[in-house]
Amino acid sequence: MTIVKGIEARGLHHCETTALGVLLRHEGLDLSEPMLFGLGSGLSFIYWDSKSMAFPFLGGRVKPFELTKSLAARLGLTLTAEETTSARKAWENVAAPIDAGRPVGLQLDCYHLDYFQTKVHFGGHVVAMYGYDEQDVYLVDTGQQGGAVRTSRAALALARAERGPMTARNRSFTIARPAHPLSWEDQIVPAIKDCADAFLAPPIANLGHRGIEKAGKQVPGWLLRAGDPQRDLPQAALLMERGGTGGGLFRALYRDFLDECTRLVDDGNLRAGHRLYAEAADLWTDVSTLIAKAGESGDADHLKQAGAILHDLSRIEKDAMQALSQLKPQGRQR
């Protein structure tokens, strides 16, 4: 058995920030999950639907691995990522760092992992690996999935090699902190402003505040869109609220990030953005509740109410991001 020493197997709400927390704590940097999410400019929105999809998807964050790349670049960390189509090379890419005493991040399809109780394909799942023996590998996943867990090496190989939406080719990554790292406090305002700018100027109508407005128009028709409303709508609601989002489609995480920032940055626009995202987080929970009720009851009025709230959310989040885009870099308080 080979185990990286000193790993704190702390399962958080969201998979990518859970893995990042493991890797960064091993490098001596212990940040809260909301801070990791916010410094990585992780918040976003997408309304995703196509003829090939059984049901639309509402996403509340940037694409898998983008958060990790953004965070590493912003903090001046050395991010080493590997991808391969070779099963042998894929194993070597994770075994070598672990043999050298360093945990590894993995992007994979959680469907194949032995400890997952709900078998749903999702190729953007991220875990931290910190050990292995002849049969199993030792991972850190979200608190919801058990925190410190293990799965068979065969199952891990299947999960890493799976192809489909949001998958990567056996992606693994390590993070190293330089001798003289950048101050993470100095990166708060740039991270917030980058996130706000992307949200306010999406390249297509399915993204950002425009995407939320589109969702407000489409959600009222979801009973007709669903193949099995009693299954599809409650599942969509569950993913929004409990599918590793931290609640409120990641808005609760971003609210808490902004709350932490108000203690470090004295800026009225920051406080305004925090107040608006506190409101938005609660409203997103209301939306998911109404969607679930519509599926359970077959009553389209619940979806009409959800659509009206989504219309309000588009405005609220646009107002929040406009305020946050005006932050002044010199506002940080030591």
TrEMBL record:
<dbReference type="InterPro" id="IPR032369">
    <property type="entry name" value="DUF4872"/>
</dbReference>
<feature type="domain" description="Butirosin biosynthesis protein H N-terminal">
    <location>
        <begin position="14"/>
        <end position="142"/>
    </location>
</feature>
<dbReference type="Pfam" id="PF14399">
    <property type="entry name" value="BtrH_N"/>
</dbReference>
<protein>
    <submittedName>
        <fullName>DUF4872 domain-containing protein</fullName>
    </submittedName>
</protein>
<feature type="domain" description="DUF4872">
    <location>
        <begin position="155"/>
        <end position="324"/>
    </location>
</feature>
<dbReference type="Pfam" id="PF16169">
    <property type="entry name" value="DUF4872"/>
</dbReference>
<dbReference type="InterPro" id="IPR026935">
    <property type="entry name" value="BtrH_N"/>
</dbReference>
